[in-house]
């Protein structure tokens, strides 16, 4: 036996007529801040990623010069990737290109994360916010990575501590750059 239409179903209006909160879409995200990629936002990401790449490259090149004794120890040749050290000696140019590309990608992620948390960073100006963000990333990523490498990879502690210091310098300088570009 067919059911009789209830009074509720008789009052149903199609979506095109209904003007309630779910009329055409569930949520209109276009009104949220930062929901669209404009030229200013793109400029922040590109300049911040470039700054991170340059800072990281300079800091790690200086660190490699200081740590060259560790890299030349025959006992650790098997640890290095074939891209970094296919034979004993300096890395080939392909390693430099890969380092720059990875630095740019990491820099873009670094700057993007800063734009997400910049209002939560303590400080009254871009400099203090950048330094606090650099320390935040160091405590969140740099220090745990150092502790994990100490447990998992057979490398001299002096080299690992050097990498930790290089990370700290990179995060602090790049944090200032990200804060400067994203203010």
What does this structure look like?
The protein is mostly helical and 183 residues long. The protein has one domain. The protein is 62% helix and 0% strand. The protein has six helices and no strands. Helix 2 packs across helix 4. The longest helix is centred in the N-terminal third of the chain and has 28 residues. The protein starts with 6 loop residues before the first helix and ends with a helix. 17% of the residues are buried.
- Kindly name the structural category: mainly alpha
DSSP helical segment count: 6
In terms of DSSP E residues, the strand content is: under 5%
Mean pLDDT: 84
Report the C-alpha radius of gyration, rounded. Answer: 26 Å
Shape: globular
Terminal CA distance: 69 Å
Helicity, as a percent range? 55-70%
Number of strands: 0
Largest sheet: none
Number of domains: 1
Helix and strand sequence: HHHHHH
Parts with pLDDT < 50 across at least 5 consecutive residues = none
Protein traits:
single chain, 183 residues, mainly alpha, 6 helices, 62% helix, 0% strand, globular
How are the secondary structure elements laid out?
Elements: H1 7-10, H2 39-66, H3 68-71, H4 93-117, H5 126-152, H6 157-181
Helix pairs in contact: 2-4, 2-6, 4-6, 5-6
